[in-house]
Amino acid sequence: MSALTFEALRRLADGRFHSGEDIARSLNRSRATLCEALKGAPELGVELFSVPGKGYRLAAPIEFLDAAAISRRLGSADPRLSLQVLDEVDSTSTRLLEMASQGAPSGTCLAAEWQRSGRGRRGRPWVSSLGGSLTFSMLWRFERGAGHLGGLSLAVGEAVARALVECGVARAQVKWPNDVVCDFRKLAGILVETSGEMQGPSVAVVGVGVNYRLDERTLDRIDQAVTDVAQCASVPPTRSALLAAMLVCLAGAMEAFERTGFSAAREAWRSLHAYQGRAVRVLPARDAPFEAEVVDVAADGALVVATPDGRTVSLASAEITLRAR
Length: 325
Ligand code: BTN
Fold this sequence. Notes:
Blueprint: H1 3-11, H2 20-26, H3 31-38, E1 48-51, E2 55-58, H4 67-77, E3 82-89, H5 92-101, E4 108-115, E5 133-142, H6 152-166, E6 172-175, E7 179-182, E8 185-196, E9 202-211, H7 216-220, H8 229-232, H9 239-260, H10 263-272, E10 279-283, E11 290-297, E12 303-306, E13 312-315, E14 321-324
Parallel strand pairs: 3-4
Antiparallel strand pairs: 1-2, 4-5, 5-9, 6-7, 7-8, 8-9, 10-11, 10-14, 11-12, 12-13
Helix pairs in contact: 2-3, 4-9, 6-9, 6-10
This protein binds biotin.
Biotin binds at residues 91-93, 115, 118-121, 124, 126, 135-137, 179, 189-191, 207-209.
């Protein structure tokens, strides 16, 4: 996507009519160049009307991230973090993994208004739209070895859910292993990628995608039950405020994890688990599904369930899916 497309959409972000002539002049471009640039809007999931005599108007306003405002909040609250906001990237996690291999420091964060190829867990794509989602990644370096990062993705889920609750999404909860849900529908997804030596040090790139305000066309491209912040919060936070809150909560969670592993977040995670004590159907990736009741989460992040024949089973693989019965 051209940089001009993003610049033109910023001029239209308030959702009002703006004449093509005014926008083109403010960008120092011809109207034909502007018209060409705006042809990229549908690919970004943006609906744009063009009305002769009135100009261009977005179907809904877009709140672009305010990088300076977020960094100011982080600067005072959290000097451990440094944030870069891009208009476009293939995937914030892919880019941050590259930056990690080139020595980027712990606490480097990357957010993007739009990802060309956002990645979900299990090799799935992560679907998002410009202004309708929050997509970012955080790099953290640990003294402990890669083999001791089990449970990190649960600690991340707890931090993300807590940030959502703090920002007014009161019913945000976690779903084992690392989804964030509201009313049993997916609100945010988490992808944790780790590397390093068994004995340490190690590095984690934590990618978070939040459904902020999903439009019908984006919803049509998602094949699971989802919801968004706009529906779940009585007064939705701005995307910038939500991102700042998440980064602060995540940095705290990473530090606590470095000290004590998942045990620091275990109690809070348990109390936020949407399926705690519930009857579920367990869908392993390869084995036959079975019914069980959720009992607990173990110190290593495994989910402990009881089967109807009285056995206690520890579910450790992130490949397992839970369904409410
Ligand atoms: C999931 O499948 O639930 C995990 C989704 C993780 C998506 C986020 S969006 C920011 C970061 N960049 C990516 O490509 N993926 C993660």
